[in-house]
Design goal:
This protein is α/β, with parallel strands linked by helices. The protein has 3 helices and 5 strands, in the order E-E-E-H-E-H-E-H. The termini are far apart.
Length: 98
Amino acid sequence: MSVSADRVTVGIDLGASLTKIAILAGSDAREFRILPTTSGEELLQLLDELQPGRIGLTGAGAPDLAQRLGGQPVAINEFAAWGRGARRLLREREITPD
């Protein structure tokens, strides 16, 4: 992904066994990755490469990663993140939920 850093947003869900990563670049470019939660160094390397302008964190490991990152990552309630993401994807596909 080659987009200026201020236009890259990364969302990370640090679960007990998997780390789910959503990378948004610009208005349409979207990439998803899954790493074992034990791959902390790989995640930090990815963030160093992407240099995102914004990072959102959720999941059990979010507080520890926020402390390691410093700066201003945004902590988000996991269930709120699921709901917001689902609504966005439905809107993009012009689907009205029942």
